[in-house]
Amino acid sequence: MATGLLQGMRVAILARDGFEQAELLEPKLALENAGAATFIVAPSEDKIKGWNHQAWGTELPVDIPLKSAKAEDFHALFLPGEVRNSDALRTDEMAVQFVNHFVDLEKPVAAIGHGPWTILEAGAARGRTMTSWPSLKSDLQNAGANWVDREVVCDGKFVTSRGLDDIPAFDREMIRVFAAEREHSTDMRKFY
User: pTM for the whole thing?
Assistant: First the structure.
């Protein structure tokens, strides 16, 4: 991936305790290697703890508490998965509103694994072609999405992916969609 492709972009990563460690850390590193500044946004104010396959994993510092975060301060949103993380976020009204603001502002959103649950809860799945962890298929279809079983799906400014095995494809397409947003932004000053 080209270094600097996302130079000047600010990407919010919405997560909480129980995020799938690889689904957050690997895409975060890919975004940073492409030049983006990433910010962990979480309901807690100090740190969040990942889930690493069968056990608790890495703790990450929270950069911005959710109660202080504004979609207007970011250029894109990334939603990592894992059941604990995503199920809790989709029932957190503040988290759902945060996602909804990105949708309303027509900013890019990328979600992997169970991450699309929060997109669904924000009312943004209807009419979109999406993928996810397979157990979300019926939920997304019932919300009006066209669910497909592919490693990564791009639908406009939305990027979704199934899970761990698909991270390389997810990273590639997330960066491509975010870079297109940077390139075609009507207000380039937001990026510098």
Answer: 0.94
